[in-house]
């Protein structure tokens, strides 16, 4: 059977499973659509949060970025897990006690202002749409490879599948399909990693294999990797970074953003009790960690395998002939995500770091520039092929990558649609809208969000994980501070919260757009996106942490200069702090 | 519930103390050991690299899990002690 047929069977089979579950649990009332009836067990909920959380960025893109950046990109690992500590302690239990459907609803009630609610809707939409762009980019890569079409067509197919999928089921459909998706994606991620870890280190647990001995050379795996890549002019994989300020801010931005992203917070409204919200956060992180502890192993092992494929006789010998390139290189060339240019016309593939420091050695070897460009987003998907694993493993990883992208895109679209239909239309424009009208508005806003994200996803402002990191920065700078102050301070008032959210959002977006292009439209950036141009060396990916600090500072300053919140609001803040009497999540 | 009773105030203080303690550990393993203090830990070898690298790629994640479960467990006890738990 051809690889194409195997891929179709795995991808098609897993889709059929999700669609069956979605139909089985098809949402009836609006309440089911948003919060799944409020009765989901912490472990089930943790698994669903895991699937919601681990997107194309985690599954497809992250290991590729770590493989390329080594230690420096550990920020993704810490940032996307550390936020759960903040979520469990600073937000989730209190928002569950508050017991409403959406994040803007809490902000609107706590800051006793319709405008605050609308500003929160705006922040939510900007952060979520940016996030969906990243998902679309990742899903497009996966579809283009496994359906053997070019990247743009892959993106279109992804958009159609996401649309059908998200519109069919509400939250309930999504909760149980996401449990299924978690299972598919974790199995798909782990199996190839175990095979590769056994091949390279003899250790069946990839997370331990990372720190074990490389069987062929007898050296520790990481030492061997350092040696090979430094021979080719790259930095050491484990090298420390100089710009620690940026590394700290980037990690902080991802952590705060994790806690501020509405599609994750919304999950904590679906547990029966306040105590369950705390446990759910813990279980979610356990399920997430199963992938995140494996990812750094996948990264280093894939990098090592890539290098030894190109230089089978060691780095001091010549690399392989282009005509003898392995099959996976040929197949990825079809998508345009691997490109080869024989700069010195010797018929071989020279893969090395084109840096000034390596120039003399490259010249001595007759090399005239790096000849192989490998898109970082393909590394995880190509990993089983690079390691010569059987065809069914490749089919499995295709299904896993798509599960990751789809589940997160669906969760985000749900957050966007509920903000539009529930907070914007029902809460503000037309309070008398019927249930049916509300559901229709929810579905239309999903469709609009998909179209916008697909259009921008065709020319994403970075690799999938980097685009997603921008979304985190935006959530960190706008929503998280408002939520946290709403719970931990009785003094912050409506004017302060609105001023804080707006300055945080505008400041962060402006900094991002200056380097990434206005509204992410390519070519509209004012400065090139390179470290020399960044203020104090702070990358646009890291600016969210600064934006959050600005938000806090403005909100406190403005609140202290204006009147105290009314007594009933101070009592509301008191009441969310104590678990007793939480009841079910309810409409107002 | 009356928000201003003596017990309610102590309950909230106990929660804040636990949160602050947890966040100190949270920051220490990630921003500390894994990033800023990594050069100081460079002498401690772990499988071909150093302790800071391990904290950056695995150690901090394991610590985060322990922190959340510890917090959930302790808060349940505190909820019961102050009688604010749900039946």
From TrEMBL, chain A:
Regions that span the bilayer: 6-25, 46-71, 77-95, 116-134, 146-167, 179-200, 247-269, 281-302, 392-416, 437-457, 463-483, 495-514, 534-558
Keywords for this protein: Cell membrane, Ion transport, Membrane, Sodium, Sodium transport, Symport, Transmembrane, Transmembrane helix, Transport
Instruction: Write down the superkingdom of origin.
Output: Bacteria
Positions in coiled-coil regions:
none
Q: What is its main location?
A: membrane
Q: How does it sit in the membrane?
A: Multi-pass membrane protein
The places in or outside the cell where this protein is found are: Membrane
**Pfam families this protein is in?**
SSF
Q: Known NCBIfam families for this protein?
A: Na_symport_lg
Q: Which family does it belong to?
A: Belongs to the sodium:solute symporter (SSF) (TC 2.A.21) family.
List the PANTHER family hit by this protein, alphabetically: NA(+):SOLUTE SYMPORTER (SSF FAMILY), SODIUM/PROLINE SYMPORTER-RELATED
| Name of the protein this chain belongs to | Cation acetate symporter
What species is given as this protein's source? Marinobacter albus
UniProtKB/TrEMBL annotation, chain B:
Q: Does the keyword Repressor apply?
A: no
Key words, A-Z? Membrane, Transmembrane, Transmembrane helix
Pfam families, alphabetized? DUF4212
Q: Which domain of life is it from?
A: Bacteria
Query: What are the transmembrane regions?
Result: 18-41, 53-73
Please state every residue range assigned to the domain named Sodium symporter small subunit: 9-85
Q: Which InterPro entries match?
A: Na_symporter_ssu
Question: Known NCBIfam families for this protein?
Answer: Na_symport_sm
> What protein is this chain from?
DUF4212 domain-containing protein
Annotated organism of origin: Marinobacter albus
